[in-house]
Amino acid sequence: MRIAMIGSGYVGLVSGACFAQFGHDVVCVDKDAGKIARLGKGEMPIYEPGLDRLVADNVRAGRLSFSTGLGDAVGNADAVFIAVGTPARRGDGHADLSYVYAAAAEVADAIRRYTVVVTKSTVPVGTGREVARIIRETRPAAEFDVCSNPEFLREGAAIEDFMKPDRVVIGVESQRAREVMAAIYRPLNLIQTPMVFTNIETAEVTKYAGNAFLATKITFINEIADLCEKVGADVHDVARGIGLDGRIGRKFLHPGPGYGGSCFPKDTLALAYTAREANAPQTIVEQVIEVNNARKKRMAQKIIDFCGGSVRGLTVGVLGLTFKANTDDMRDAPSLDIVPALQAAGAKIVAFDPEGMAEAAKLLKDITFAKTAYDAAFEADVLVVITEWHEFRGLDPRRIKQVMRQPRIVDLRNIFDPEEMRGLGFAYEGVGRPLLRP
To answer: Using CA atoms, how far apart are residues 307 and 304, in angstroms rounded to an integer?
Structure first.
């Protein structure tokens, strides 16, 4: 199959490379000439483990190419995927669909034969119908169908999620379009991936419902963690105790400083807005948004309280700035709330992140960026873990203690063992665990 991927950001680039790995001929299109030039040189605009190798292999095989013009790419395509950004709109939090609709109009101009136009971007219910209307209005004689095929990719594990997904959801309403989409995803039949064929509206709602539910699980266990701290319980044992119930499941029951990233914050906002517009308010989701925002802000006070009520004049070492490990994504990262609040309270920040410091430097000011995790801990009065990078789990606590001014750790990801840290002489506080001092 011949595929045009409109948008070469996170979703478009990963999806395009993976479709090429399936054996399809893929052209990734983006208006950002700089991005396309970098891709042409084999340079990735984002950090995603394994993506550089996957792109290089498929470019070498002649199945993957990049362009700034969509004319030929769309004109020759069996399917066109719209994978442009849908950021939260300022003011009301609704998804900004201007990029999607602009892409739809350009696709309409370029269609030459029957084409399946697929919304891969995360879009509110009703977007697919509007895309179809735009194309029909622009090119009344165009032969096309519109489908919804939401992505379910986790940053840091996106390739694995695409190649071995839990399911593929396809909103489609003609047999011809269904056959095209089935052919595109045929390689997944070998691993018996469930294919959920439904209508367009259902597919659109499914994406938002999935992300909102996961955001709710995270927020739930974070509130349980607060209770555990008050009563002397251990949230990890609680999470295991309830997660072993098959009706609940163990995933997304990891306490921390609150969710962030490119999906959960904007998707919960968009779902809440869409639901209010439809007169079916999602009060649970709205509460999740409020609780999560408050939690990120409250984490700085947790650190200040741990330091005796003040961090003025103290050096705070920070491990991790991105919203999660294995990505350089800083969008809505908890660090964007925590670091400025600590600075406002008079702290000096020395931070290290394996991949995110270049992006963080655009958003966080007056920070000293360290070359290693140990450098971030050097002469620190307290060390704060914000992101759960795997390499942090392998740090030597004894070496950390040697270089710190005061052996104090606030572990917002619970990567260290509390009893070990206490035994080594650290004052240690995690999330959802009793306060431990030597």
So the answer is: 5
How many whole angstroms separate alpha carbon 385 and alpha carbon 320? 6
pLDDT one-digit tens code per residue, 148-187: 999 999 989 999 999 999 999 999 999 999 999 999 999 9
**What residues are labeled active site?**
263
Q: Is 148 exposed, middle or buried (0-12, 13-18, 19+ CB in 10 A)?
A: buried
What is 2-198's CATH topology? Rossmann fold (3.40.50)
Per-residue pLDDT band for 92 (boundaries 50, 70, 90) equals confident
Evaluate whether 261 touches 10 at the Cβ level (below 8 Å). Answer: no
The pTM (predicted TM-score) of the whole model is: 0.91
- 63-85 residue pLDDT tens: 999 999 999 999 999 999 999 99
3.40.50.720, 3.30.70.1170, 3.40.50.2000, 3.40.50.300: which CATH number matches 243-429? Answer: 3.40.50.720
Domain with CATH 3.40.50.720 in the chain: 2-198, 243-429
Asked if residues 426 and 438 have their Cβ atoms less than 8 Å apart, the reply is yes
For residue 123, give the 3-state DSSP assignment: coil
